[in-house]
Specification:
globular, 138 residues, mainly alpha, 0% strand, 85% helix
Amino acid sequence: MNKKNIFKFFLIFVGIIITYFLFKKVGLSNLIEIMSNMSLWFLLLAIIAWAIKNIIMAYRLKKLIPFDMHFLQVFLVTLYSYLLSYLITAPGVIPFSKIGLLKRKEVPFIKSSVGVGLELIYDLIFTFCVSLLFLFYF
């Protein structure tokens, strides 16, 4: 098996583990009851908001990495890093997994770490500005 097949197998395995823990914690009958009482409009709205958030994050990461990559590759790196964060609940998993996944796409370590670091700094500045806005507005 080559590295790509091992990585795809790992992602499928992670998805199976997450699904197992979901069914173990909630139970299949409770999950069906919750899903039947859900509003489909709110579910659709949440899926659209989640997709837009991930597209924006992937676009921002693509612009911050000084390396020529296709948008779909950066988008998949973003999705895989969030999938890993659901499996491993430790702080800092998302940035380190993004750097590792970008390294697998043959992006040099320095360029990927600078891009992810700039993304974190951008998030901090944006959060600080929004916090100041709400602090002085309300």
